[in-house]
Amino acid sequence: MITIDHVSKHYQMGTVTVTALQDVSLQVNKGEFVVILGPSGSGKTTLLNMLSALDRPTIGKISINGQDITSASRTDHFKFRRETIGFIFQSFNLFPSLTALENVQFAVDMRGNGNHRNGSRAAIAQEVLTQVGLGERVRHFPHELSGGEQQRVAIARALAMGNPILLADEPTGELDFRTGIQILQLLQEQALNGKTVLVVTHNREISRVADRVVELSSGQIVRDGPPQGGKAAISDLHW
Amino acid sequence: MRQVQFWLRWSWRDLKARWLQVLAIGIIIALGTGVFSGFGGQKKWRIHSLDESYERLNTYDLRMTLTDGSYLEKEALLDTLRDVNGVTGVESRLIIATQVDASQDDETILVQGEIVGVDVAAGGPHINQLYRNQGRDFTEDDSGQNVAIVEYKFAKHYDLKPGDALHISGDIPLDFVGTGQSSEYFYIIPAEGVFLGEASYAVLFMPLETVQNIARREGLVNSVVMTLEDGVDRKAVEAEIETRMAQAFPDTGFEMNTRQEDNIYKLAYSDAENDQVTWDIIAYLFLIGAAMGAFNLAGRMVEAQRRQIGIGMALGVPRFWIAFRPLLVGLQIAISGMVFGLIFGAILSTVFGNIVKDFAPLPYWIIELDMATFLRAAVVGFLLPFVATLIPTIRAVRVNPIDAIQSGTLVAKGGGWTKLLNYLPIPGRSFARMPFRNILRAPWRTTLTILGVAVAITLMVMFVGFLDTFVATMDEADEALLGRGGNRVQVNLNFFYPVDTPNIQALDDLKTAEGEPLLAETEPRLMLGGTLKRGDTEIPTMLELVKMDSPIWRPTFVEGSLKAGEDGIVLSEKAAKDLEVEVGDTITLEHPLREGTFSFRMMSSEVRVTAIHNNPMRSLNYMDMSSAGMMGLEGQTNLLVVTPSQYANVNDIKRALFSQPGVSSVVGVQEYLDAFDEVLRLFTLFLRVVQIVVLFMAFLIAFNSTSINVDERVREIATMFAFGLPVRTVTRMQIVENILIGIFGTLVGLLAGWLLLQRFLAARVEDQLEDINLVIVLAPTTILISLLLGVLVVALTPILSIRRMLRMDIPSTIRYVE
Ligand SMILES: Nc1ncnc2c1ncn2[C@@H]1O[C@H](COP(=O)(O)OP(=O)(O)OP(=O)(O)O)[C@@H](O)[C@H]1O
Ligand SMILES: [Mg+2]
User: Fold this and answer.
1) Helix, strand, coil: what percent of chain B each, to 5?
2) CB B434 within 8 A of CB A95
3) What is the pTM of this model?
4) Number of domains comprising chain B
5) In this structure, are B307 and B161 located in the same domain?
């Protein structure tokens, strides 16, 4: 369970203070599928960064499964990210020197403790890549893939971590309608399997598939509840 | 104007962001230009120092030396020479051979030497003045007193100070008042082939009258030094002197030489010249190393900006402005390189100067950074970063903007060899593979880094290789010279004596004396100068006639044999090689033949080479004692080899034999080798300095390379952190990458160093070390240490980036799409 308790994030730029998040409080339960909606610059990425312990809030407290991550040490943060979080970055951040398969395998490797032989780890990676519809291009390097394909590799990488919380920053931004739908379905399935999934988007239409939409504006939560007009089936979306 | 400001501000930001790299590259260039100018100008300042020393000591223009054993009345001689046309000053000396006992409480110092009696009247000597290092100068009152100024190098070698005990032949005690230097003794070379003469030959300066009294040569002199008018015709002066001398002293032979003909003078200057060849090679290697390093690093800094350059082009910024930023970085590097190069060059000049000072002391030193050489280096150092930044900049502005912009096509291309590697299974996790991929994904860049490291290692291997070769050659000489007879003592006689003369018998009696005899064994030998000839090749040699069944010592054969009583010659390996002969061939030996008691003539004989011995010194060659008849020296000896009994040591023997009639010197063979050790010590000291510089350069190249790696991969690294990959794993990956680079670089460096060492030493052997059969080796420890240091230094540099990684703002780094 994720508990965000009166969290604010300020950036001090000389004399100017930029407020990215302003007194945000939120609870997300295990297995929930939550969409975070908001215009550009509203603080969505900042919020995910706090949740994944990439960054610390200026004020407030975040605890995950009862564990306070705001006061945890740097080393604990690394461990926490390794064992709890799967992150899909807004800008993919694939490793250019690794192939698509290896990028995903990287995540499998991160899980550690697997006494998998090389082959079986590659097999897991291959399987996840097939799930995102990229079974064919596994031997390609990131710069040989299109933006959408790169994004799917990034998603596969996050899934391959196998961690209980999945954070996706604009996972459908670069994708066409059909693929976008597939990805959303995939993420939703993860929630059905018991993972907590938070998906960031500025696309209101996408938010309709969620049980719960948290709307951010200028760093503040302006709305929290089921999507306006009720939850829609994925097949009903138009983008 | 506003535009200039804008770009300047931008490049100032660049500088702030990478000042450490700029500085490091600047220092690498500085090491190159500094060594280049510090070493490159060495000849110049050594020659300046020599000029200065010769001038300030008012060194003679013309020197007259009377034939050995001849003396002339001082006043009569001076009168004859004083008013010769063109002569501006004349001073006479009396130089006599002596034995010097400078033994101190804890050390026996008994050596051959000479006393130079100089005219101390009126504050002299005025020509060939003495430079005083310690103690006091001579005064007029010293005339006739037993006071001595000891030649500085001898005093320094044995750490003697004014006031220490000092005796000369006849057990005459001297008042040791000072140490000093004279231009005629800048090098001490008492005899052919004697190395580091200052350890075994003492020069004492004393007042002329004192020497005349001691030598019982009242009023007599045997040497004259003269100064001449500037621009005077020397030949005419010499001719006039010869005429006058023939008139005044028709029976006295003499020789004249100008300062420039002086052997010491020639040696001093040619040493400075020849040494420069060595330093030049070193300097160029350093410069090349620095160039390679700087080129690589500056290029990579530009390379890292390619996307920005591409974006600039896409936005239509004029190429000039696009190129402006990277070139400004080049300028910053150039300036820091210049500044540090100047400082570093000056420091090196001083350090190096001090070592030279210690090794070949001169009274006056003008150690300066040679500006001309420095400027030459500085121009290179200045242009280098420019070219290094210009080339990749031009390449960058010429590509299609889109290629530059597209995510990392150029910086982080994964194609090329990586494709190949795709099919090569590398075991381990995906992040274990990354170091290999990173190395292969930019082969050119990797190659440059490897070469940079390699050059540093090459330099180190070369220097240590010198030392190894030196040591190995010495070891070989050691073994050959000592063998089983390491405690033997050579007693050189001042002439040939029949082995049954009383003074030789007296030595023999020391074996059988009652109670505790001094000697265990004695053996007469012969030592003669000669020449080995075959075809056009002529090799001067010291021929030693040894009883080939000697229980004390005889040469060790590596090939062939020579038994007692047999004819034939045993050649050194180098002599055989140079003469192109093998065992069984015949050579011509030019040797002295005794015709009367005091008359010898040279003659040639054909001798068969029957064996090769193991001493690396070319000039040492041996025959059996039975060949003495060939030289008309049957039953004669001029060299006794003795060994101490169980009751005595080498010093006891020296002490006992020193005053024996006919003995000119007593030297333990071990002492010859000790002299080399002294040279080795200095050599090693110098090499340590170079080694540190070399390692520092390797370190800087590696450091910069890693630091640029971190820059280039900063987003990757942040992403890994975001996935929770610990800093230590990321560092380990970088270390693995650097180990690979270090191993390749070191291997290439070892190989290049080895090849250069051989070529270089081979070349040196031809022009300078022709007398030694160098055993060119790299000691296994050298190889190991180079490998270790090379790999270690390079491998460990990523540790220096840990702090940077720890302080990384992960979200910002990830957020920012370059
Ligand atoms: N390191 C930083 N320093 C200063 N301001 C920052 C920093 N990081 C983020 N901000 C500011 O915080 C605010 C929120 O940024 P954030 O990236 O969370 O927006 P976002 O909702 O993800 O926008 P988008 O949809 O465009 O990705 C923005 O105004 C941004 O300028
Ligand atoms: Mg965002």
Assistant:
1) 55, 20, 25
2) yes
3) 0.68
4) 3
5) no
